[in-house]
Amino acid sequence: MNYMNQPRGNCASPCGTPAGNNRQGMDSGCKNGNPRNGGSRCGNNNMNSRCDGKGCPSANSRCGNHCGNKPSRCGDCDANSSSRNDPLEGMPIGIGYVPWQQWRTTYDYCEGLSQGTIFPCLNLPFYGCIPRDFHYNKGGRA
Amino acid sequence: MNQKQLLMYITQVSFALTEVNLYLDTHPCDQEAMEYYQEVRKLRQEALEKYQCQFGPLLNDGNHSDSWEWVNTPWPWQ
Question: Do B16 and A109 touch (CB under 8 A)?
């Protein structure tokens, strides 16, 4: 890939605030690039708002069946919904997912060899941070 | 194309072939990919034939004459 030595001043802090043109942005608390905010595990710190007033989860709530003594974490077995625009919202936790590659227009032969891939979607230069204009569905359409 | 350009072309299409090979391993029913594979395979075969007939073998199935031309092409240090 051709971009290994490019300056990295255009990287946004993963938490959404601009990092500026110095390296301080990369040393922010959100180093790992995880766009989620802190949040609670269940997306809701107060289980009562998910359960009915009697303290016992209703059948339609997401609190599971921990009626009575057991503290409930809302019984969520799927990814928490505490952040907006999470493409994996609702998916089972504890499993890694790899998005399915679609066939798109390929690079021509010369460009493909030069970039190290014939697939523009797979041309992902390593910057060590998330660039400001990065789109999660990069790779575009055919 | 001269010898060097033709060899570079063979390298390019060979790489494309490897890439589409990997894609087809996970997407065996993808028709577009299959068409791309067939096209690249054909181009590569034609380029290899052209190169090897003119400049000598690149692979051990590329000796297109009645004499063993491999030893007549430059040795690695030449």
Answer: yes
